[in-house]
Amino acid sequence: MNKKCVLLLSGGLDSATTLAIAQSEGYEVSALSFDYGQRHAVELASAKAVAAAMGVTDHRVAKIDLRIFGGSALTSDIEVPHGDDPMARSEIPITYVPARNTIFLSFALAMAETIGSFDMFIGANQVDYSGYPDCRGEYLNSFAAMANLATAAAVEGRGTYSIHAPLLDLTKDAIIQRGLELGVPYELTISCYDPVGSLACTTCDSCQIRRSAFAKLNLSDPAPSITSNNG
């Protein structure tokens, strides 16, 4: 019997690759996405398409509203930065959503406990990323420790919760290479923070990091974008 896991699926490149890795390791994946009032809600359509294409039969979407807090360009009317070098920035960018991964992982933990799983997967990366504090290994280890103190399943000795972040120490191009080996349908994914309809803008932090990684592999990003749509 396959092992069960809960996987956070955003519809982006990293989470799709993480899904493929989890499946390659023999996990039966239950995917969890969030409609949280994000500017780039088009990612939910990508998450649905990726889940269907990769054979996930249990894909749930939790609806919460992080716009009531704001504090981020993704959950308020603050403009998304365009054109700056995301790898040269020293401060945490305005696209950081306060406590987002903590909120998401808390939902994943609740889902895991109810389906009898002790494994959670997240596409966090601390190498080629925008500098978010909740994408670091020490944070994920601390959350796992909390999970094993906070749940009936762990306290009663039924299992030990683990958070798997297989992309944590990979460069973005290494992530893509691994995904290509596993057949990830990158053409269905979107990573853009400020899309125009269903098209990636190509100039926000996330788009720049993604496109640069494909270029390092001498490949073009297969996902629809303003550039590709204009030929």
Q: What features would you describe in this structure?
A:
Helices cover 36% and strands 12% of the residues. With 231 residues, the chain is of the alpha/beta class. The chain has one domain (3-185): HUPs (Rossmann fold, 3-Layer(aba) Sandwich), CATH 3.40.50. It has a 5-stranded parallel sheet, with helices on both faces. Helix 1 links the parallel strand 1 (3-8) and strand 2. The termini are far apart.
Summarize the structure.
The chain is α/β, with parallel strands linked by helices. The protein contains 8 helices and 5 strands; from the N terminus they run βαβαβαβααβααα.
**Unreliable residue runs:** none
- The CATH topology corresponds to Rossmann fold
Structure classification: alpha/beta
Radius of gyration: 17 Å
In CATH terms, the superfamily is HUPs
**Portion in helices:** 25-40%
What's the level 1 CATH class?
Alpha Beta
Q: Give the averaged pLDDT, no decimals.
A: 94
General shape: globular
- Give the domain tally: 1
Q: What is the number of E strands?
A: 5
Going across the major beta sheet, what is the strand order? 3-2-1-4-5
Main sheet attributes: strand count, strand direction, barrel closure = 5 strands, parallel
Oligomerization category of the chains in this entry: single chain
